[in-house]
Amino acid sequence: MPSAIKHNEELAPKGLVTILVEAQGANEAELEHFLWKTFPDNECFSSVGVSVPLPPSDGIPHGGLIGVDGTLLWAGNPLSATKKISDLIDAELVKVKKGWGDTAEARKVRAALYGKGDLEAANTLVAAMAEGQERTALQAEVDARYTSAKNAIKNLQEQGRWLDAQASAKTLAKGVAGHEAWTAEVATILAEFDSDAGKAELAADKKLEKAIKLLRDKKLDSAPKALAAVVKTSANTKVGARAAKIQTALDTPLK
Amino acid sequence: MMNPRLSLMSVLLALPLAAQNAAVGDKVPDCKFPTFLNGDGRQSLSEFFGQPVMIDVWGTH
User: Is the ipTM of this complex over 0.90?
Assistant: First the structure.
């Protein structure tokens, strides 16, 4: 686990996604408790109670590396193949940057879409392609990426992570600049952050971020007080609910 | 007597690995993550395609 966290720290900025899946029956609050107490700097996506579609294993840790096109590249005990995994990730990160596919056009589209996050450029490149299967498939990828990015912002808002949601919305706005319909949709999303309710959420999230920083700095004596203050002053907000959830997690050690 | 958590772990490691597991070289079937700590709002595995994804299955005990 620490090796996965370290790997993620190094490579997440270049595009690696690391998903930690707890498989010994912890519930969400217990997992959160464990991570805050043990790995407060962990930035990996962490989940419980999910069946991941990897090859069978009779022990942990085990894992798998999925390539940019959704192909399983490696599976096994991650501690037994660190060099191989590292080399495979490096090769995939090159694909993120340069694109991949059988044709130069496909590579250009994917480099714009995944490497630069420029959805409009990718969309324009697809529109210039000749009709056919490849164009249809690439258009579906562009559209799916846009829909996913929009939904992710909504999910972050629901989870009480309004600062992250706002940052994602601003990034998406840059990525769709020049596309009239998408720009209008993203403008509507961005306007939510300027509403009274949105401003209240953002203000609460700034306070919560300070409390979370205390947790990350292992100041476990002062963090609960800071969390309690957010819960008290931010009732009826999504951020307040998130703060309360973290409070609960801190009081929920592993059984 | 076997630790109940270890017993549960055996079940968890065995049951999910039935019908829709990928082998190396296969396209990985989608799955939805019910919750993510530290996520970025994406909730399905397929939403991450376009980036390399390392899945690490581990235990808290």
Answer: yes
